Fold:
Amino acid sequence: MSVMITLETDYLGLKLRNPLIVSSCSLTSTLPKLKSLEEHGAGAVVLKSIFEEQIMGETAMLERYSDYPEASDYLHNYLSDDYLRTHLELISKAKAELTIPVIASINCAHAGEWVDYARRMEKAGADAIELNIFMLPLDMTRSSDEIEQAYLEIVNKVVAAVSIPVSVKLGIRFTNILSIAQHIYYRRGKGVVMYNRFFEPDIDVDNISVVSSDPMSTSAELRNSLRTVALCSSQLPMLDIAVSTGVHSGEDAVKALLVGAKGVQICSTLYTNGLEVIRSMSDYIESWMERHTFSKIEDFRGMLSYKGTADTEDFQRVQYMKFFPKDR
Ligand SMILES: Cc1cc2nc3c(=O)[nH]c(=O)nc-3n(C[C@H](O)[C@H](O)[C@H](O)COP(=O)(O)O)c2cc1C
Structure:
C-alpha cells in the first residue's frame, strides 16, 4: 500500500506547499517573474533585496550634488519615494496575484531611519521580512563584538517596528555562528538563513587585475552549511533555519532537510538549469520520501542534525588527523 505523501511544511510560521523557496535575486524582482516561479512550483519567494542606500536616497548620487543643497534635497525625496513606491507596489501586487508566501528582503548595514520602511513593507502585505545584513570589516579597530552588536541592533529595531516574522540572512564568516543565531532569537528573530553567498573578487594573473568571480555557486558549496545547520537546528530548535548556497538538486534539498533546515533556498540552479528544476527537485523529494516511507517532511527533518545522529563525532571532526587515504 502506498503512503500519501505531502511536501507541505511551515517556515517562519508561514504555510508552504513545499520547502523550496526562491531566494532573493534578479529572478524575484518583477511580477511576471514571480508568477512564473509560482507556476513552476516554488513554495515561497524572497523578493530581490531593497538596499538601505536606496531607501535612504541613493547616497552616492546625492554626493555629486552636495554643493547644491536644494537639488540634493529634491533628489533625496524623489529617489527614495519613487524607488520605494515601486518596490511597495511590487509587494502588494505579488500578494494580490500569488498564492505562495512573499517574503520581502532588505540589505542593510546600520540600524537607521530606513527601519520605518520595514513597516511600510508589512503594510504592503509582505508575509515576512528577511534582513540581508553584511558589514565588510575594513576598520581594524572595530571589534567583532562591536560588529555583532550592530547586527543585533538592526534586528531589535526591525522586530520592534513590525509584527510579521523577521529572519536574518547571515554570511558564513562568524567565529561562533551559534552565538549570533541565539542572540537573534533572543531579540525575537524568527529565523536565520545560512548562508548568503556574496560577490567575491578574483585575480586575473595575466592582466594583473582584480576581476569578478562566477556569481553562481556549485553543489559542493552546500557542505559549507551542513555542519552548522546540523548544530544550530539541534541547539536552537525554536529558530527556523533556511539553507542557502549550493542547493542545486533534489538530493541537495533532502540533505538540507535532514540536517534540520525548515526551508531550502535556491538561486544559482534556477539560472543554470532553468525554472523546470523546481519541479524536478520537488519530484525527487517526493520519490525519495516514498522510498524511505516518510509521509511528511517532519518525519525526517533533522534526522541527521547534531542530536539526531548517533555519531556526533562526524560533525565535530574538522581536522584530517585520522583521515589518510592509503593511495595518496
Ligand atoms: C544575480 C544574483 C543576485 C542576487 N541578489 C541578492 C539580493 O538582492 N539579496 C540577497 O539577499 N541575496 C542575493 N543573492 C544571493 C542569493 O539569494 C543566494 O543567497 C546565493 O546566490 C547563494 O545561493 P545559490 O547557491 O542557490 O545561488 C543574489 C545572487 C545572485 C546570483
Notes: The longest strand covers residues 102-108.
